[in-house]
């Protein structure tokens, strides 16, 4: 029975990694659709999110079956509970990617009011945080989970810079307010993706220690 449980848990971990890879891809597609102002690419993000939602439901059901049919020990319960929390965070990241795609469609083909430098930087850092937090889970690595918090501070700093710059631009030229607001929203969505990666880091620490901590 124990061997069967461990095999099922291993399969669950592999599906979790698959979901993580899908989330990284959807964030990349959403940001690239903005950079390229590719509206068709932005619309594809919606379909990708549907696939993420389906996988989340599948993973959730498998977690519930493990809890119902096996007899998990204390740490096993924390592992399964952590997986359920992680898939929720991943699903919400997918939702934020959809929000970015929606804003891209709203902006359409109108000329961008500024070169997109900071937003791609934020996206790259956020994606690295997601990757690192999932790696921490797979390795049961507390120190790696804690590192995610330092990355989150860098993302927050970039967002603050974007916010200040765009507000100053609006003051100088109120006619750009609509697009500037859209870009602010995109920065906020990327910041939230980073926050969800931080959540995963906190779940990993709880899984390993049984203690709830805030690492940001």
If you had to describe this structure to a student in words, what would you say it looks like?
The chain has 216 residues and is mostly helical. 36% of the residues are buried. The chain is elongated. The N and C termini lie far apart (39 Å). The chain has a single domain (2-209), classed as Phosphate transport system protein phou homolog 2, domain 2 (Methane Monooxygenase Hydroxylase, Chain G, domain 1). It contains 6 helices and no strands. The model has no long low-confidence stretch (mean pLDDT 93). It has helices at residues 2-36, 39-69, 74-107, 118-139, 142-172, 177-209.
The CATH class is identified as Mainly Alpha
What is the share of helical residues?
over 70%
Structural class: mainly alpha
| CATH level 4 superfamily | Phosphate transport system protein phou homolog 2, domain 2
Question: What order do the helices and strands come in, and which of them pair?
Answer:
Blueprint: H1 2-36, H2 39-69, H3 74-107, H4 118-139, H5 142-172, H6 177-209
Helix pairs in contact: 1-2, 1-3, 1-4, 2-3, 3-6, 4-5, 4-6, 5-6
List keywords for this structure.
216 residues; mainly alpha
